[in-house]
Amino acid sequence: MSAATKAWRPPMGWNSWDSYGTTVTEAEVLANARFMAEHLLDAGWDTLVIDIDWYDPTARAHGYNENAPLILDEYGRQLPDPQRFPSSVNGRGFGPIAEQVHALGLKLGVHMMRGIPRIAVENNLPVLGTTYTARDIADLDHVCVWNPDNYGLNQNHPGAQAWYDAQIDQFAAWGLDFLKVDDMQTPFHADEIAAYHRAIAKAEAKYGREITLSLSPGGWVSTGYVDFLRGNAEMWRISDDLWDRWEDIYQQFARLARWAPFQTTGHWADADMLPLGHIGLRAERGDDRDCRLTPDERRSLLALWCMGRSPLMVGGDLPTSTSQTIVALANPALREVTAGSRNNHETVRERIFASWDDENSYRGELIVWAADAADWADGTMSAHDGGHYAALFWTGDDAYELGRNIELQSIVGLDERDGRWTLSDLFAGIEDGATPADVRIEGEGADRVIRGTIPPHGVLWIALDPK
Known about the structure:
Layout: E1 12-15, H1 17-20, H2 26-39, E2 47-50, H3 95-103, E3 107-113, E4 116-117, H4 118-122, H5 134-137, E5 138-139, E6 150-153, H6 158-174, E7 178-182, H7 190-207, E8 212-215, H8 226-232, E9 235-237, H9 246-259, E10 268-270, E11 278-279, E12 289-290, H10 295-307, E13 312-314, H11 323-329, H12 332-339, E14 341-353, E15 362-373, E16 388-394, E17 400-401, H13 409-412, E18 421-425, E19 438-442, E20 449-454, E21 459-466
Helix pairs in contact: 6-7, 9-10, 10-12
């Protein structure tokens, strides 16, 4: 098994958090799996993740429970709530769901908190395969500040590694493909991350199946950790939770620009979930709703994540989302750009004023990203061989008319500025309610520019191909 084969492109999938918070059920997971297999698998969407507190029988919307009666085995390892996940009874865990998901051609993952359950420590349960107990290995000084379920682990004690080894061995035995592990990066728990990585490596060697590791949350995560992160994980969050507010999307422009140069095959900075579609059914924040972003803001979200090569994990309940949402997610350009681009970078970021001498006339920011089309890491030929991608974003509240400030040569390169180029809209044919693209090449030779109108909080997302 080669580490390079894991997450060779940014993973694309569904996570239950934005829709169901801590309360998702087996029926809801399988309904999303069947919908994904039928409508989105061909577009690259192939992973489902059951988010937090699947082991809490008292789980509820809008928060966590103090002293929750977590369901554990005799070694303190979490087990699915059998009321919500009836196939898990008799020690089968998530094995039956994993079998059904795999039969659809998909992958299954779960969320997990750093550390060991408080109940296991209070009851002093044994650590599987050792003479240690939960009290021996608990670290009461490094406890999650926002979730009360767990204590930390003392990674200076050999039983701490044994605990993670046993926990992940069980996940691998169930057939899980993906682990989203929380409370790892804010603050940055390097010893815990490394221990989790070692446990996954042992489980992969034993069971012969790959397990992708995703780390959360990501507030203030420094690019100085990149070498360590690449050595220990396939995904790591670069922000706290993101919701369906334009201000949340806007904050990600700077973060993705900072991390884009570090994206590499198998290891991805993650700008968080896509709060698209039908969300808030029983979630932590907000009421039952369709995504509150405008159609143009949704396009900006998708184009920015793809140009930044972030993993794509949608949060909306797929079977009950609008047809416009599903059409947007099925756009083949999403996988095309995340899997088949390189040299992705922000080229322009300028504050625009209605009058150059009036500081009170600020309108918004013009932000431009560029990337080269590249063959995929699995050997698939690029859809735009020899071409380039560009995304022209506008953050203002009114439409922005591009002048002659975005030169074609700034996207294709000075060496190719005299070539003949065709422009295509990467949202062409996508009927998602957004403003139809108004974008074109004007001028001759080296004087050519990209012109058009960018809608409020919108984007022009294009491919440039040599004739």
